[in-house]
Amino acid sequence: MNANVTAGIPRQAAHLVDGSLYVFRAWHSMPDEFHDRDGHPVNAVHGFTRFLCELLEKARPEHVAVAFDASLTTSFRNAIYPAYKANRELPPADLEHQFVLCREVTAALGIPVLIDHSYEADDLIGSALWSLRGHGLSSVIVSADKDFGQLLGEHDEQWDYARNLRWGPAGVHEKLGVMPHQVADYLALCGDAVDNIPGVPGVGAKTAAALLSHFGTLDDLLDRVDEVAYLRLRGAASCAARLREHGEAARLYRRLTRIALDAPVPAEADALRRQRGDAAALEALCERLRFGPLTRSRLGALADS
Fold first, then answer.
1. In angstroms, rounded to a whole number, what is the distance separating the alpha carbons of residues 281 and 283?
2. Domain boundaries, the chain
3. Mean pLDDT in runs of 10 for the chain (305 residues)?
4. CATH classification number, 180-257, choose in 1.10.150.20, 3.40.50.150, 3.60.20.10, 1.20.272.10
5. What is the dihedral of CA 153, 169, 206, 231, to 10 degrees?
6. Does the keyword section mention DNA damage (predicted)?
7. pTM, 2 dp
8. Residue 45 · residue 22 · CB < 8 Å
9. Which pLDDT belongs to residue 4?
10. Shortest CA distance to 98 belongs to which of 26, 184, 180?
11. Environment class of residue 241 by beta-carbon count within 10 Å: exposed (0-12), middle (13-18) or buried (19+)?
12. Res 185: pLDDT
């Protein structure tokens, strides 16, 4: 894992940004002292815009897109499993409004915005990465979310921007104990509390990694579940019993943890090429959001770059 990004990332790598994550981070980290000209809070917009400016200034990507979640309750996963993300509170109305404004700032900077009511930001990023790979482009996923590990190919990277950490496929194994192609199976087994996916009872992260190291895939594990009792695992016999009881549930959970690669994203790589910013739209947003002179200057410079 490389914690040093001072050398920068090659311009030819497409940067795919988990926009919703960074809006939420800005919402929680920025003081509630920023208001637009109508008096509405815009602290998340100010924080997100600063993040986006800094990212563009550092990386200077030729291909870039920012993906946003349209809703916490409308993705195809909710139809499969109604409890999916049911543990999360819905964003307050003030934050919902700020999400719209963050998308407006992104688009005004000439950056393609990806959003869909049936697919989450993860799926849009995964589908864009898959499409770009077909055009010979590598990708950098800008996010701290562990789910994205399943997408990383040999030449791809994930960039946890806030912690200044970057890693490729080997870093996924270092973090989780499994290879990228096993991440969805791993999360189906041990669960993901953030998304309200319970996993198989009693199967924690280390056990899930050990099982996949031995069997390779969730399907092979469940097909050969009788062998589990003979592994050198603590509580191997009871683990085998739980896998027999909850095997079909684990297969269901994998439908939730697997990032879709067929979400509606542009098929051509040039559709994700950064365009010249819309100076008039940016100026109007600066007035409306009451951006300070430094942010206005940065936006203006980036619009022309």
1. 5
2. 14-176+260-277, 180-257
3. 42 90 96 94 97 96 96 91 92 93 98 97 98 96 97 97 96 97 98 96 97 98 97 94 98 98 95 96 97 96 91
4. 1.10.150.20
5. 70
6. no
7. 0.94
8. no
9. 38
10. 26
11. middle
12. 98
Crossing angle between the packed helical segments 43-59 and 19-29, to the nearest 10 degrees: 130
Instruction: Report the alpha-carbon distance of residue 303 to residue 52 in Å, rounded.
Output: 12
Contacts of 294 (CB under 8 A, 6+ apart): none
- Secondary-structure class of domain 14-176+260-277 per CATH: alpha beta
Residues in the chain: 305
Among candidate residues 277, 259, 77, the one with its CA nearest the CA of residue 184: 259
pLDDT for res 15: 98
CA pseudo-torsion sign 74, 76, 81, 86: negative
Nearest one of 275, 284, 272 to 302, comparing CA atoms: 275
Contact 35, 290 (CB under 8 A): yes
* Tokens describing residue 241: 């019993």
Q: Do domains 14-176+260-277 and 180-257 have the same CATH topology?
A: no
Q: What tokens appear for 213 in the block?
A: 């190291």
The structure tokens 């007035």 sit at 287
